[in-house]
Structure formats: structure tokens, C-alpha cells
Specification:
mainly alpha, about 90 residues, 5 helices
Length: about 90
């Protein structure tokens, strides 16, 4: 069941930090209505991004989900080790 207008208004009246935390929690759900509510809350948080920057970020996140679902991913510790090695090479050279 979609959130009522009254509930959305009450949630939007929360502080920016609280809206962000609640939106993050709701994003972890598989329920479409809760996910939609999370989007409303997170869109109300001023992150300093322009609409085009936000669209670019959303597209990159969607691409990441697609890669993850297709098994195209690497363990984080492996990626971090590679980045640290590159940084050390730059610093040495």
C-alpha cells in the first residue's frame, strides 16, 4: 500500500539527517512501496548535486546493480589492495 500524503508530509517534516537515515533503511527493503517512500525521503535531502549529476549517479548505481546480478564483481579487499598498490607506485615514481 502506498504511503498516504499525510505520512509523507510528516516524514518530510523530519530533519535532513533523519530523513537521510530513514531513507537509507527503507532502501534495504524489497517492498516496492517502501522503496518508493525511501526515494521521496532521499530526494528531499540536499546533497548539493545538480539534477544531471544525480541522474548520472543513479545510472551508475543501476549499472552496478546489473553488474552485481550478472556476477561481474570483485571482493572489496582485492580492489582496495590494488588501489593501494597503484597509489604506492605513484608515490615512489
Amino acid at each position: 500500500m502506498p504511503a498516504s500524503k499525510a505520512l509523507i508530509e510528516q516524514l518530510l517534516a523530519l530533519g535532513e539527517h533523519e530523513r537521510g537515515e530513514l531513507g537509507d533503511l527503507l532502501l534495504d527493503t524489497k517492498d516496492a512501496d517502501r522503496f518508493a517512500l525511501a526515494q521521496i525521503l532521499l530526494d528531499s535531502v540536499d546533497d548539493g548535486m545538480t539534477e544531471s549529476e544525480r541522474a548520472e549517479l543513479d545510472a551508475a548505481i543501476e549499472e552496478s546493480y546489473t553488474d552485481m546480478e550478472a556476477g561481474r564483481m570483485r571482493p572489496a579487499d582485492e580492489v582496495i589492495a590494488e588501489l593501494r598498490a597503484r597509489s604506492a607506485q605513484r608515490a615512489a615514481g
